[in-house]
Amino acid sequence: MPKSSALPSLSLRIDLLSGDRIGPGKITLLENISRHGSISAAGRAMDMSYKRAWDLVDELNRVCRQPVVERQTGGKNGGGAALTPFGEALVARYRRIERTAASAVRKELAALRSEIEKPRKGAAR
């Protein structure tokens, strides 16, 4: 089995005092809304129903007490959705926190990978 140089990854979830959470799934959904211009297209990109995507957006809007996503009406293809300036800042801050945390644990993740990949003594080959 060839050794991989990739480190194990760190997944970050922020637990708020209210009991609500902001994690990689919700942030990816917001990034997809920004990329695709609609909640339904963002949900499809994540193999998620429109209802589930809308429920997550609604939860974020409620938790943050200010809009993260705003729906846009009209147009020949119907409406769409876009991140508010606060939503864009939320995604950017989450990604900065994620990068900082990953950097802080890089040595520990490398040590973990090394320990996991180390053959056990006496193990049959």
Would you mind describing this structure in some detail?
The chain has 125 residues and is mainly alpha-helical. The protein contains 5 helices and 4 strands, in the order ββαααββαα. It has helices at residues 24-36, 39-45, 50-64, 85-104, 106-117, and strands at residues 14-15, 21-22, 69-72, 80-83. The strands form 2 sheets. A two-stranded antiparallel sheet has the order 1-2. The model has no long low-confidence stretch (mean pLDDT 89).
What are the SSEs and their pairings?
Blueprint (H helix, E strand, L loop, with lengths): L13 E2 L5 E2 L1 H13 L2 H7 L4 H15 L4 E4 L7 E4 L1 H20 L1 H12 L8
Antiparallel strand pairs: 1-2, 3-4
Helix pairs in contact: 1-2, 2-3
Give a quick rundown of the structure.
The protein contains 5 helices and 4 strands, in the order ββαααββαα.
